[in-house]
Amino acid sequence: MIDLQVLTQAVGDLDEKAILTMVKDFVATNPSGEDAQKVVFACQQGMAIVGDLFEKNEYYVGDLIFAGELLSQTIDLLKPVLSSVVTQKVGSIVIGTVEGDLHDIGKNIFGSMAEAAGFEVYDLGIDVSPGAFVEKVKEVKPQIIGMSGVLTLAIDPMKNTVKALNEAGLRDSVKIIIGGNPVNADACKQIGADAFTTNAAEGLKTCQGWVK
Amino acid sequence: MMDAVAMTNERNQMFRDLFSGKTPQRVPISNPATQDFAIQYAGLDLAECQWDLTKLEQVYNKFCQDFFTDTYPGGSIRIPSHYQILGSTCIVMSSSGFMQHPEVVGLLAEEYDQFIASPYDCLVETILPRLYTELNGSPAKVAMALAKAMRAKSDDLAYLGTIQAKMNAKYGYATMVRALTEAPFDFLADFLRSFKGISGDVRRCPDKVAAACEAVLPLMIKKGTLPNSSMLGATFIPLHMAPYLRDKDFATLYWPTFKKLVETLVGMGQKVELFVEQDWMRYLDYLYELPENTIMRFEYGDAKLVKEKLGKKHIISGFYPVTLLQTGSKQQCVDKAKELLDILAPGGKYWWQADKSIINLDVNGPVVENLRAVLDYVHENGSY
Amino acid sequence: MLGGEDKMDSKYYITWEEYLADHPELERKSKQAIEPKIQKYEDIMFTFIMDLVL
């Protein structure tokens, strides 16, 4: 049986070879869905270590991106043995880069960390219109919306998206977090979001606080 | 009222003083708003004006008239025509008309050795056909596309150059030339390996990353060379990836070839202007090591600390937060300008620029009024 | 001379010396008039190509 503590530490260390070897060996034993779920949980705990090291300035954004890639490789390996288990999600989030902006790195980091933390993540992609956010919220009824933007211009479309949610009567049903280079407390207030962040790990903590 | 030629001479002298480490007569100013902003300020359609450049003369006239600046406020411009003709996937226009750079992969991880052996050959043969659909196909098709695109870009640049010359003649701006290049690591990251790709490479194959940076250095030097090193102007190097790296990766992979790039350009008698993107406060000791009077425009960080650590050796710029123009009152915006002026101006070696460019304009918002107030304040209060 | 080109070593960037070696017919023509022109377009092409990935 796989040593879950060793796996968690390997994820925290971003030791790609060790992680893949352990998980491949584990899958080869034809494990039960429940055991596979434990492996996923161990990886999630490893991602929490990554988040902590990021906050301590030992890891930086490049490391978070690499961590996201490692995690999705791991989940892909586990998928065949996980299929029999219904996974319990801690909450759901709709994310997207706002209209006029094509940058998706920050959004993708946040998305993979949120997924790793057990959220159901609906990613609308880039250059997302206010209408597209509204439609998705109607469809999947998430608890949280995450809007991302890098350009200084991103603040206006964020404001427009909140306005559109208000007009559709959906604003009070969701929490809204904004992320990206131009956001700060003043911008957050002006946009009408509930929280802002320039740091994916911190943003995730905010979201976790909301679904507790 | 001084005539425009005299104003150009005076402003050129200001920049000559600044670049050589002398205190100029006042703090030189560059308007952070760009052509995109100017088009919206004129009430015109952003996408249309970038295709039909004939509308831009009136755009610039109004823009130059209404906002104080010592340098032509054109910013760095990506003209859509040649990108369209080449089938660009790496520079595209968004729904609102802004030209942007999505995450793309021009070079695959398994192609490092080919790139290291001959970076320019690899660019032409492998990378460009992947990033530009019209450069992928029969030689005749590629040749036609390239010829059309070169002609389109050359026409557009000539037209924009004419507008710039007219504005310089009318408003007496400093006449500076610019070359653009990148740190080898950033070049490798931005269009070749992508943010995600390079983040993996740094851990999986650091030796190849280092070798690729070395291999591409001569190209980056050549790209950053001014037509004539005695011209007033600078090589502009926007810095990108360093804040996202661990210190040890920065020290071994980013810094060595970047330092060589700057030293070589300065050794050729040129000025170098860095756009120090994001937060570089943990790298200030490195920046100190660069040749004297390197121009450093900062985005985030502690202006006081920068002045203290770098201000005697280098020329400091940036820091003014453009987001404040959108969220603050006029008084708050002016107070911020005063605060930075008090910190950065003493002893000279300060060029007023904002922390980043302003590309969008909400016509009902406060940006126009606030920006004008800030530019006027610095103009009136920046004398030495 | 522009920096770095000596080390470029590419089949798509030809220095004047390399060009002349391939075109001996130019040896007896006015090289001082031809060289800057040939070199100029070599450099314009280089800048165009590099700007596509900057």
Structure description:
The complex is a heterotrimer of chains A (212), B (384) and C (54). Chain A is α/β, with parallel strands linked by helices and 212 residues long. Chain A folds into two domains: 4-82, Orthogonal Bundle (Methyltransferase, Methionine Synthase (B12-binding Domains), Chain A, domain 1), CATH 1.10.1240.10; 91-211, 3-Layer(aba) Sandwich (Rossmann fold), CATH 3.40.50.280. In chain A, 58% of the residues lie in helices and 12% in strands. Chain A is built from nine helices and five strands. Chain A has helices at 4-13, 16-28, 33-55, 61-82, 105-116, 130-140, 155-167, 185-191, 200-211, and strands at residues 91-97, 119-123, 144-148, 175-179, 195-197. In chain A, helix 1 (4-13) runs parallel beside helix 3, helix 2 (16-28) runs parallel beside helix 4 and helix 6 crosses helix 7 (155-167). The longest helix of chain A is centred in the first third of the chain and has 23 residues, at 33-55. The two termini of chain A are 32 Å apart. Chain B has 384 residues and is an alpha/beta fold. Chain B is 54% helix and 9% strand. Chain B contains 16 helices and eight strands. In chain B, the strands form two sheets. A six-stranded parallel beta sheet of chain B has the order 3-4-5-6-7-8, with helices on one face. Chain B has a two-stranded antiparallel sheet with strand order 1-2. Chain B starts with a helix and ends with a helix. Chain C contains two helices and no strands. Chains in contact: A-B, B-C. The interface between A and B is large, with 36 and 38 residues.
Give a quick set of tags describing it.
heterotrimer; A: 212 residues; alpha/beta; Methyltransferase, Methionine Synthase (B12-binding Domains), Chain A, domain 1; Rossmann fold; 2 domains; 5-stranded parallel beta sheet; 9 helices; globular; B: 384 residues; TIM Barrel; 6-stranded parallel beta sheet; 8 strands
